[in-house]
Amino acid sequence: MTKHQKAQAKTEQAKGKAEETVGRTVGNERMTAEGRAEKAKGDTRQAKEKMKDIFRH
């Protein structure tokens, strides 16, 4: 996994988790859903990069 893509995936995951937590705390369903979506985006990016690594070796 390239360092840039790995960092971007981790950032998206952390940002999404934080946004989801804040949304849940204040009772904002839209913010909670956006946080879940951001976290899923990071998860997907990380999985894609891991698959690339598998096929490179």
Automatic annotation (TrEMBL):
Q: Which organism is it from?
A: Streptomyces kaempferi
Output compositional bias ranges, type Basic and acidic residues.
12-22, 31-57
Matching InterPro entries: CsbD, YjbJ_sf
The CsbD-like domain, residue ranges: 6-56
The region called Disordered is annotated at 1-57
Annotated family: Belongs to the UPF0337 (CsbD) family.
Question: What is this protein called in UniProt?
Answer: CsbD family protein
